[in-house]
Amino acid sequence: MKDQATAQRKTKETEIRADIFRAEPIWEIDTGIGFFDHMLTALFLHAGLGLRLKTQGDLHIDAHHTVEDTGMVLGMALRDLLEDKANIARFGQASVPMDEALARASADIGGRPFFVLGGQLPPEGSGAYAYDLTTEFFRAFCQTAGITLHLEICYGSNGHHMTEALFKAAARALRQALKPCDGDNSTKGVLDR
Prior knowledge:
Strand order of the largest sheet: 1-2-4-3
Strand content: 25-35%
Order of helices and strands: EEEHEHEEEEEHEH
CATH topology: Ribosomal Protein S5, domain 2
CATH superfamily: Imidazole glycerol phosphate dehydratase, domain 1
Distance between the termini: 13 Å
Number of strands: 10
Oligomer: single chain
Structural class: alpha+beta
Shape: globular
CATH class: Alpha Beta
CATH architecture: 2-Layer Sandwich
């Protein structure tokens, strides 16, 4: 695994640059969406990774492109960071309580992208961030990172708590999957790139 990776993407809707650091505690995040910045800080802090991120998006329309495209770029950077997946645990699981909410996550960073969200988030949101954008973010992130991630919101009533529990559970599962380990982590002898 590399110490640092960078990814960039520019379209008519968004312009994004992300730098991920394996062992540097940096969380400089600016997407223009306060709640999303808060979730990304939690994601990378609890995953044990540093992040410097600048996203400029068409927020005058809504937050969809900004959130989805940020997920794509972060996935690209993480995939680059994981260029050599030898000697990592590969799988991780976590449960995170957040007051009345409980979320679970199971991750496989073996190179095959898939995303599942079980349970339902409330339809409203926090500021410009509609809670259903959580699905769009993680789907894009998993697709470009080559991660299988199953998230489940077990229960809860506060959308902020439910969403934050999902981000933290995903982070903790990724942290576990990234841990060094000895021996093979695939019967094929190699993980997909």
